[in-house]
Sequence to fold (310 residues):
Amino acid sequence: MERTQAASALTVAVAKYAVGAPSDFDAFAAKQAHWLDEARALGAELAVLPEYLSLELGATFEPAVRADLRASLAATQRYHRDWLALFSRLARERALHVVAGSFLLDVGGGRYRNRSYAFAPDGSHVWQDKLRLTGFEKGAGVIEPGDALKVFEVAGADGGRVRCALAVCYDCEFPLPVRAQCEAGARLLIVPSCTDTAAGATRVRVGCLARALENRCFVAQSVTAGEAPWSPALDVNTGEAALFAPMDVGLPADGVIAQTQGERRWAVARLDFAALEATRAQAQVANDRDWVSQYFPSVARAKVVGFGNA
Fold:
């Protein structure tokens, strides 16, 4: 990918997405249009929907299918082509970059990957598969991890571009892959997430904060909200959508730029990438710059020692 002019700022909206039970694909599509209209009205240039968004389509099937994860995943594949067409159209019509949460996609042999799609205002898309599986995903027995990291560019209103990367939920809790994405130029990490417990929501949030700190990047996390008792995967949803920054001079001391609360559906902020870059010169600490200091022989392995006089 050629080096292009960096955008100075980008307005990003992250959803606290209320899971529902659409009656058919048209109802699902209308809901997506409504949510993205809200984001656009709030000034968003990039809108982020949550992980497992495609599982909401399970509500369109008969009770026996939607209550069975494997059967629901298999049935949802009929919507994949329509899914791509829908979000391509919504992105074009609204001149908006859209991260459409994730779609559990059959990649052959009855195996599924948790794939997050990002759509550009011209309708084109890129995707990133989730690399690490949670206990729930492993237990499903049919979901497999992805095997490649990607970085892509999003156009800002000033004509410049911002390099972005996707880390789907649990992936944000692992520093080295995200570091590789940031070393490839990513300055915005996008985290579509879905968590059912307060502990899970905290883990993902802490992961987002840690990745922002280590890499001097912004992080945008979307979440699912509410209850869907008909779904074995979306039954209970916990957490707040948020936009994070490194905790440094000129940036929020707690790392939180904006977040949802209560009934608020979107957290929105204009991310200033020029200001982010400028913080390097006056940084109190510089985890991003000092990262390589970890790589020396004496810390490659820790050794057990006993108490003594030395």
